[in-house]
């Protein structure tokens, strides 16, 4: 089973990845968690370029391709091997984030980003993507650290990101559910489980 969490920064992705990992582990599942971009040697280097270097000019298309390169490595080095071992994979972001940040909010062509994503991932998509939704301004308030390069693009951009996630959820090109992130972490986790439990049951029946 392959699950990804997405949503604006501060929505609670890292928190929910942790809660779901603990819940699955308590049920005897082997769980691999990762973050996209990152979780490989190459991916972490690219992540550093993408998120930390405010002084390196990066065109939106170059940006999109750097994310894709990181993801391609993540799929081959981490995700596909774990799934082949029969383990659960939980990723903090995945291709959908690229579609939303670079296309919906960044002006690149949506279709092109999806297509490039299929090439980069060899077509490997999550069984379910959980979008944690809340107003960008409220999410920003939750963050107790200075903004990274993507976040530093301002609230208007972040609100376009939020709307992009909602549009993609409605379009449902891949299995996506939206969960309100404007509740306590435990309440969000409970909502997440309502979507995960049927998936697990289906997996067990196979
Ligand atoms: P993300 O990974 O999406 O940026 P985090 O999980 O790191 O978000 O959460 C951002 C901050 O908000 C953290 O300090 C975290 O403890 C807090 N937080 C996470 N979920 C909630 C929630 N449901 N309600 C209130 N605060 C939260
Ligand atoms: Mg996080």
Integer tally of domains? 1
Q: Just give the CATH class.
A: Alpha Beta
Average predicted confidence as pLDDT: 94
Per the CATH scheme, the topology name is Rossmann fold
**Strand arrangement, largest sheet?**
2-3-1-4-5
CATH superfamily: P-loop containing nucleotide triphosphate hydrolases
Task: Specify the helix fraction band.
Answer: 55-70%
* Proportion of residues in β-strands: 5-15%
- SSE class: alpha/beta
Q: Spans of 5+ residues with little confidence (pLDDT < 50)?
A: none
**Termini Cα gap:** 12 Å
Overall radius of gyration: 16 Å
CATH architecture: 3-Layer(aba) Sandwich
Task: Count all strands and give the number.
Answer: 5
Q: How would you explain this protein's 3D organization?
A:
There is one protein chain. This protein has 206 residues and is an alpha/beta fold. It has one domain (2-205): P-loop containing nucleotide triphosphate hydrolases (Rossmann fold, 3-Layer(aba) Sandwich), CATH 3.40.50.300. Helix content is 57%, strand content 13%. The protein contains 8 helices and 5 strands; from the N terminus they run E-H-E-H-H-E-H-H-E-H-H-E-H. The chain has helices at residues 13-26, 41-52, 60-84, 95-104, 110-121, 136-142, 155-171, 185-205, and strands at residues 2-6, 31-35, 88-92, 128-133, 176-180. Strands 2-3-1-4-5 form a 5-stranded parallel beta sheet, with helices on both faces. The model has no long low-confidence stretch (mean pLDDT 94). Residues 13-14, 92 line the site of magnesium ion. Adenosine-5'-diphosphate binds next to helix 1 and helix 8.
Brief overview:
The protein is α/β, with parallel strands linked by helices and about 210 residues long.
């Amino acid at each position: 089973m392959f699950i990804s969490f997405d949503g604006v920064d501060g929505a609670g992705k890292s928190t929910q990845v942790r809660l779901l990992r603990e819940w699955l582990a308590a049920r005897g599942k082997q769980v691999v968690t990762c973050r996209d971009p990152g979780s490989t040697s190459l991916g972490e280097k690219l992540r550093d370029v993408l998120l930390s270097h405010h002084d390196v000019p990066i065109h939106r298309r170059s940006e999109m391709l750097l994310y894709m390169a990181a993801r391609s490595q993540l799929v081959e080095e981490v995700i596909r091997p774990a799934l082949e071992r029969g383990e659960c994979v939980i990723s903090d972001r995945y291709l959908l984030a690229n579609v939303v940040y670079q296309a919906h909010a960044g002006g690149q062509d949506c279709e092109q980003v999806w297509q490039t994503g299929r090439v980069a991932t060899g077509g490997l998509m999550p069984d379910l993507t959980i979008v944690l939704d809340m107003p960008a301004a409220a999410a920003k308030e939750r963050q107790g650290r200075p903004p990274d390069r993507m976040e530093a693009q301002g609230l208007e951009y972040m609100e376009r990101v939020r709307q992009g996630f909602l549009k993609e959820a409605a379009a449902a090109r891949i299995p996506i559910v939206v969960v309100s992130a404007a509740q306590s972490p435990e309440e969000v986790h409970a909502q997440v489980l309502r979507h995960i439990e049927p998936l697990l049951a289906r997996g067990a029946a196979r």
